[in-house]
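<instruction>
Derive structure tokens from the sequence
<data>
Labelled lines for chain and fold:
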Amino acid sequence: MLGGYAQNSQMEKLGSMLNDGQREQTRITVEGTKLFDNVTGKKNLKQMETFAGPGAELVDIGLKDSKGRAAPLTHAQLCSLYMHLQNADSREHLLNGGLTIPDAEEYNRGDIEKAYQKGQTVKIGMLTDSTGNPMADTVIQAVEKAMTDYDRSGSRT
């Protein structure tokens, strides 16, 4: 037999399994693409460019670094912060530990590694309730106000 092929052999079964796996991967990719088309489709290219990465639009929601300078966020970082604030454990960590924000200039140049090396941990200033516990509502409101419709379409919880 040329090439060792035999009907119903282990090699034929292995080949069929690989083909089936490739077909399933393609099916999942197509379904996933359709699921996120309202955010990542061709009609949203301009919004995607301003959402994250080099040249992304920066939003100032009032966060300050340790030197008192504004610490703006990209829309992607804003959405990430919004989603973290929806989880009680994450919210507690952000209120007590802060949020590390990359250097906006380096980030916009595309040097993400350097941006995080130069980044700072920002303490999220909160109002406190009558017992002195921090209230996340103020920062959640600031984040929600700064979010665009495009941001909201990808951040549904």
